[in-house]
Amino acid sequence: MTLNEILYIIAYCLFLAGAAKSFRDNGSAMAVRIMSAGVALDFLVSILPLLGVSFLKMDLKGSNGVIVAAIMFGFVVWMLFVAALLVRRAGKKRVFHILIGITEIAWFIDFITFLYGIYKFPLR
């Protein structure tokens, strides 16, 4: 398991903890901060290697369609979270909770797809 994968797991767990607190506390500010920390960690682990941070680079010897799809779906996950924050700001807590639930599921699918692309499909 690489450092990236460990950091991605920590990011997702932070998000899940924040989401659980959010469902319990009806979208409290602390829950949003915890979820935001998870999303920010995920974003940084994804973007910093592109900016030259070498210790976060994954030494993949190529790519495949599954990895590319997972990367694109990762952007969708980030946008879902931003949409949830905007809806929360507008005072629509029910829609906020629905979007957080969808984000949880989408992030899980994204992460599993990414791992599947790395370990189960040949890299080109």
Task: Describe the overall structure.
The chain has 124 residues and is mainly α. Helix content is 76%, strand content 0%. It has one domain. The chain is built from four helices and no strands. The longest helix has 27 residues, at 93-119. The chain is elongated. The model has no long low-confidence stretch (mean pLDDT 93). The two termini are 21 Å apart.
Radius of gyration over alpha carbons? 15 Å
Strand proportion: under 5%
| Inertia-based shape | elongated
- Please, what is the average pLDDT? 93
How many domains? The number is: 1
Structural class: mainly alpha
Helical content, roughly? over 70%
Q: Would you count the extended β strands for me? A: 0
Q: How many helical elements?
A: 4
Unreliable parts: none
- Strand count, sense and closure of the main sheet? none
Pattern of helices and strands: HHHH
Distance between the termini: 21 Å
In summary, what is this structure?
This protein has 124 residues and is mainly α. The protein is 76% helix and 0% strand.
Jot down its keywords.
76% helix, mainly alpha, 124 residues, elongated
How do the helices and strands line up, and which of them pair or pack?
Layout lengths: L2 H23 L3 H19 L17 H25 L3 H27 L5
